[in-house]
Design a protein that fits this description.
By secondary structure, the protein is mainly alpha-helical. The chain is built from 18 helices and 5 strands. Bound molecules: tryptophan and iron/sulfur cluster. Iron/sulfur cluster (SF4) binds next to α15, α16 and α17.
Length: 400
């Protein structure tokens, strides 16, 4: 349970662009080599704000999965699935809702922000208020402890931690917990039991975090523990009750900011994007016609890269030498803007070429993508069902 498990989701917004690649996907691709990773399409989340356009969801889902694969997310190393195909998320969402104070949801910053931002939509809905809790269910159902997200999502992970803590507090206490935990310790075998007790004491008396981690590993590695005992032993280290749900952490990486063609953040709503699978001609044209420092009206006018979105692209794509070439050439009117843009065009095309190639087989044969997702959904469901069974048991719903 305490092997690092990474989970992240993305709303299906259709074909992805360079902003998604530099902001999120590059990170996923790095993580997939280091951790067990689950990545999913948050299609129910899309409905919380876009319930009025159900007709586009399906296309958006498949386009997005193809873009993940094109960017280099490897289905052999990660589990890729679709939220609505693992209905256990919804069941956990419902069960968690029983102990979720309304005030906690209303206080999450995105609640008011998004309502104001999307003022043309009626977001005074139950689904929209509850969406951070749905996100909590997404995370908790896999006992994921690492959640790569952008800054805007950190409050949601924080909220998820509070929900997990509250759940464990309310439902992790059972009649005779201490005795059951003591009995579970005996099942570890004499040697492990002794080490477990020592580590537990160290943690409880001195707050020794290493001891806590070591004790968790010990429980993790213990074979053949009956159901429930593992959670008891995890919880008992820290003194409390059973630890049914695991508190996750936000995994923040310095997000490489990808500017849009106009210098604002790259985003579909600003119409300033470069799509991951756009053809070379379209991309070249988009960059060639990008705005530059407005002071450079004529070729002979010197410019200031700080006032030019092309410079921001150079900061993403160019090495030190080329950046100097831009700085000097621009300020002295030694280079023209088209000349300055050419290496950016070349870099973007070079970055995207392998993506177009990786996407090709999936576009030619859509059943490939369907089967990757079918496999992923099956794997995800197994994990989800296991947690849900323990959650139900803890909540008194263990009868079948
Ligand atoms: N809410 C996230 C977003 O809008 C997407 C998401 C849904 C998510 N469930 C998640 C991200 C679970 C991380 C973990 O971007
Ligand atoms: Fe921008 Fe380059 Fe033109 Fe300077 S030379 S204004 S940095 S495009």
């Amino acid at each position: 349970m305490f092997v690092d498990r990474v989970l992240s989701g993305m709303r299906p917004t259709g074909a992805l662009h360079l902003g998604h690649y530099h902001g999120v996907l590059k990170n996923w691709i790095r993580l997939q080599h280091e951790y067990e990773c689950l990545f999913f399409v948050a299609d129910w989340h899309a409905l919380t704000t876009h319930y009025d356009t159900p007709d586009v969801i399906e296309q958006h889902v498949w386009d997005m999965v193809i873009d993940w694969l094109a960017a280099g997310v490897d289905p052999a190393q990660t589990t890729l699935f679709i939220q609505s195909r693992v209905p256990e998320h919804a069941e956990l969402h419902l069960l968690l809702s029983m102990v979720t104070p309304l005030g906690w949801l209303e206080r999450i910053p995105t609640y008011k922000d998004q309502q104001e931002k999307l003022a043309e939509k009626d977001l005074a809905t139950y689904g929209f208020l509850g969406y951070p809790l749905l996100q909590s269910a997404d995370i908790l159902i896999y006992r994921a402890n690492q959640v790569p997200v952008g800054d805007d999502q950190v409050p949601h992970v924080e909220f998820t931690r509070e929900i997990a803590r509250r759940f464990n507090h309310v439902f992790g206490r059972e009649e005779g917990f201490e005795q059951k935990a003591e009995a579970a310790i005996k099942k570890l075998g004499a040697k492990r039991a002794r080490v477990y007790r020592q580590l537990r004491t160290k943690f409880l008396e001195k707050g020794d975090g290493d001891a806590l981690a070591a004790a968790r590993v010990l429980v993790e590695e213990a074979q053949n523990l009956p159901m429930g005992d593992r959670e008891r032993l995890f919880g008992y280290i820290e003194g409390g009750g059973k630890m049914v749900l695991v508190e996750p952490q936000a995994l923040l990486t310095e997000a490489s900011r990808m500017p849009g063609l106009d210098g604002q953040k790259m985003s579909k709503s600003y119409d300033n994007t470069i799509g991951l699978r756009e053809d070379a001609e379209t991309i070249s044209k988009k960059i060639r016609t990008m705005p530059t420092d407005p002071a450079r009206v004529k070729r002979s006018d010197p410019g200031n890269p700080e006032k030019c979105p092309v410079w921001e692209f150079h900061q993403v794509y160019s090495d030190e030498l080329r950046r100097q070439w831009v700085q000097q050439g621009c300020r002295s009117a030694g280079i023209g803007c088209l000349e300055c843009k050419q290496p950016v065009i070349d870099s973007v095309l070079a970055e995207l070429k392998p993506m177009r190639e990786r996407a090709r087989p999936y576009l030619q044969d859509p059943t490939l993508v369907r089967s990757i997702i079918a496999d992923g959904c099956e794997k995800a469901r197994k994990l989800a069902q296991e947690t849900l069974r323990e959650v139900k048991e803890a909540m008194g719903l263990g009868y079948n």
